[in-house]
Amino acid sequence: MNLFLFLVGGTGSRVLKSLVMQLAAGVRPINEQTAEPIRDLQIVPIIVDPHRANEDLKRTDNLLRWYKEIRHGLYGDQIDVERGFFNVKIATLADLVPGHGLSDTFLFNLGSIAEKQFKDYIAYDSMDDPNQALCSMLFSDEQLRTKMDIGFVGSPNIGSVALNQFKHSDEFREFANVFKPEDRVFVISSIFGGTGAAGFPIIVKNIRDAASNPYLTNRGDLRDAKIGALTVLPY
Length: 235
Prior knowledge:
Elements: E1 2-8, H1 9-24, E2 30-31, E3 36-37, E4 42-48, H2 55-75, E5 89-90, H3 93-96, H4 111-114, H5 118-121, H6 129-138, H7 141-144, H8 156-162, H9 170-178, E6 184-190, H10 195-208, H11 219-223, E7 226-232
Parallel strand pairs: 1-4, 1-6, 4-5, 6-7
Antiparallel strand pairs: 2-3
């Protein structure tokens, strides 16, 4: 069974860092119905955050890599380890689909967002006058000039547009293709910033709408996936 964790924005990375430390200490997820540890569990973190310079993201990414290296040194590629430190396996999406060209990383590829100002991303300068006027009603001049390499700076209206590329990405396609009925999805984000407040509904919407995407396999399984979420209020 795979547990796909979507960690959105800086809050997602902070929460994941705590989870990695618990897993390293030997904590295992429990089946609430049987009170037994969940067997053959593999956690697949996917960090969605264009702010690559964020120190929380860097620390969490390093922890995930160290965890993966240490666990492989202890147990090899074995998934089900009954007890002990680092007993739960953490994998990248590339580990599940070897040879498909995905980077072996826990970070979702948002390069096409991070390199641009928002107005360039939506091709504002090439719009006709009526569409430019509409955009100016929806977004302030400051928002249009926002360089998205630091995230969406408390503007979920920007994030909801920029992150909608999620459904067209190689990562989402491969995630959909390997998803099985017994797998689970969990989304962690804040609700008060820009990246988290925009990313959470976009991710869930695209998973639920997968049935209408002809380029995906397992469309029905993904549409009916069991999805959990942790939404963090201002702190």
